[in-house]
Specification:
Elements: E1 17-20, E2 26-29, E3 39-43, E4 49-53, E5 66-68, H1 71-74, H2 94-99
Parallel strand pairs: 1-4
Antiparallel strand pairs: 1-2, 3-4, 3-5
This protein binds zinc ion.
Length: about 120
């Protein structure tokens, strides 16, 4: 990173810490260290953050590593992606359509003759 601000999270627009995994993939971490996080991250000499996943099968964080929470675990988009619009007057809600359905109901646990398995 050369002085430019790293891009924020694309979903919630919060600042995140981008770190490179052992497989060379960039993942967003919460910017503040979190002892409950499963990512052990450290800053390389060129300023790049690098991270590895820690768990029961791996080494615990070394002295030079700090635990971070993957941002995916805490990301909460502020606004819904698709805003809810009122239902048009000519659209029947699915719940009402179900209750108005004609025909005999099949007892629970038994399938009717026309139902596929
Ligand atoms: Zn986010």
């Amino acid at each position: 990173m050369t002085g430019r601000r790293p891009p924020p999270c694309g979903k919630c627009q919060r600042q995140v810490l981008w770190a490179k995994t052992e497989r060379g993939k960039w993942i967003p971490l919460d910017p503040a260290p979190d002892p409950k996080g499963n990512q052990a991250a450290w800053q390389d000499s060129d300023g790049t953050w690098k991270t590895r996943q820690v768990g029961p099968a791996s080494d615990p964080p070394w002295d030079w590593e700090k635990p971070f929470m993957p941002h995916a675990a805490t990301c909460k988009p502020e606004a819904a992606v698709v805003p809810a619009r009122p239902r048009p007057a000519n659209v029947t809600p699915i719940t009402a359509a179900r209750s108005l359905r004609g025909g005999r109901r099949t007892p629970a646990g038994r399938r009717g003759p026309n139902q596929r398995k």
